[in-house]
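input
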Amino acid sequence: MQSGPNRSVVITGLGCVTPLGNSVLEFWNALLGGRSGAGPVKSFDSSCYRTHVWCEVKDFTPHVQRTRGRAAQLAMAAGKEALLSAGIEPESEGLMLGVSIGTTMGEANFLDRLTDTSHDPVAAPWAEVLTHSAYSITSDVAEGLGIEGPQASLPAACSAGNYAVGLALDWIRQGQSDLVLAGGAEAFSESAFAGFNRLSAMSPDRCRPFDRDRQGLLLGEGAALMLLESEDHARRRGAQILARVLGYGLSCDAHHITGPHPEGNGAAACMRNALNDSHADAMDVGYLCCHGTGTQQNDRIEAMAIHKVFGEGARRLPVSSIKALTGHMMGAASAAEGIACVLALRDGVLPPTCNHENLDPECPLDVIPNQPRELRVRLILNNSYAFGGNNACVAFGAWPGVAQK
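output
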């Protein structure tokens, strides 16, 4: 089996459960149709908080009940769709299949229950704490789908999905696995909702990335997984190839526990690192899927970083943020955005930045406002930034046969 940094890695399967729909088709149609997943909080009483809107997965029935929490159930459904779309039976003999999943809060619903009983230490289910670590999501998915290859959980906050894809890319390049399910999973929790409210980072109604009058983010939940596969293995089994994973880049601001570096140095560095790993130049990029949370500071600094990397070309580069519709799915965010990148390459359509009314002069970008744009591109970058200054960027490339459709 070929291994090494030049081993080509492709994507052959996609699966997701999101506030926009419980399949890849529903997700993509909603993105292009501008249908928002936002609505009032129903899973707990939000009257004590300053905001009352979020983006919930709707009408979801778990395929397998025997998991440790909702995040694993969401990830299991996404993983099954990804494998089915790729024509893979996970328990096939000799199949080197791994799983790499990122998350922010892990099984956060368990944390909520623990908080409810924390006033009474005797009543708190302390014996369950060790079985509800962030890793339990990955282990539940691996056990439920019969995956016996390498496994990893990456609790890298809002960049976790991209971190997981980067690790999967390394495993395949190094010959540790032929195929890897990679992405992120996050279940909505009151703990996260309370935390972002206390940071005054939440919008009272809509998420409006890069808009002059943006007021903050909306939290979301869901899971998104893609099947990465070595090109030689995909060709041998006659798989339908959707796109390439060209490379990834990481960086750390080491600046502040929640805020990005004020000059966007880390955000720019991870984009440059992704281009270097892909043996590509900034001029090769045809579209950039932004982190674009809709907060004043993050959007402004991401725009600054884009200008640092792309120079004069930054104003002409099409960019957008799908968080206007999905909300911020935290550990699953960049994974869902990665699926949007793959579909954009496949279909020649770029998803829009919805809810955009007034361009912010501090974000001088072509944000594809409100309507999708038909455009064939060859290379896409997918940005993600997280608390602690953890930045990750993945580069996706068009597959020749798909791009000529």
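quick obs: The first strand starts at residue 9 and ends at 17.
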